[in-house]
Amino acid sequence: MPRSVNAVASRARRKKVLKATRGYFGRGKNVWTVAKNKYEKGLQYAYRDRKAKKREFRSLWIQRINAGAREHGLSYSQFMGLLKKADIELNRKVLADLAMNHPEAFKAVVERVK
């Protein structure tokens, strides 16, 4: 009996990877072995950078809050400590947005905690 291979599934799997690697440089877009390696490495980067994105945004929010707080004579750590004491539960994302886009509202929060 001849050997049976599922060529349809194999081709579909390869097509899926080659479609995902469209736009890659050089052989990474059309040579199966190179494309497969680049595709898998790309998935690793995507997983890693989803985590890194959270760290980077938190860092950005802290910088923005710090800049806003210093305009009112407080450091970031002093401001966050006063927020906790005053039992105001605004997260860093909201505070950063207030500091950047709504300085009057941020000033009101600072005056409330002082």
Automatic annotation (TrEMBL):
> Keyword rRNA processing on this protein?
no
What InterPro entries does this protein's entry cite? Ribosomal_bL20, RIBOSOMAL_L20_CS, Ribosomal_protein_bL20_C
Enumerate the Gene3D superfamilies for this protein. 6.10.160.10, Ribosomal protein L20 (1.10.1900.20)
Q: What is the lineage of its organism?
A: Bacteria, Pseudomonadati, Bacteroidota, Cytophagia, Cytophagales
Q: Per its UniProt record, what CDD domains does this chain match?
A: Ribosomal_L20
Q: Which UniProt keywords apply?
A: Ribonucleoprotein, Ribosomal protein, RNA-binding, rRNA-binding
Give the CC-aspect GO terms.
Answer: ribonucleoprotein complex; ribosome
- Single GO molecular-function term? rRNA binding
Q: Which SUPFAM superfamilies match?
A: Ribosomal protein L20 (SSF74731)
Q: Could you provide one GO biological process annotation from this protein's UniProt record?
A: translation
- State the protein's name: Large ribosomal subunit protein bL20
Described function: Binds directly to 23S ribosomal RNA and is necessary for the in vitro assembly process of the 50S ribosomal subunit. It is not involved in the protein synthesizing functions of that subunit.
Similarity section? Belongs to the bacterial ribosomal protein bL20 family.
At the top level, the lineage of the source is Bacteria
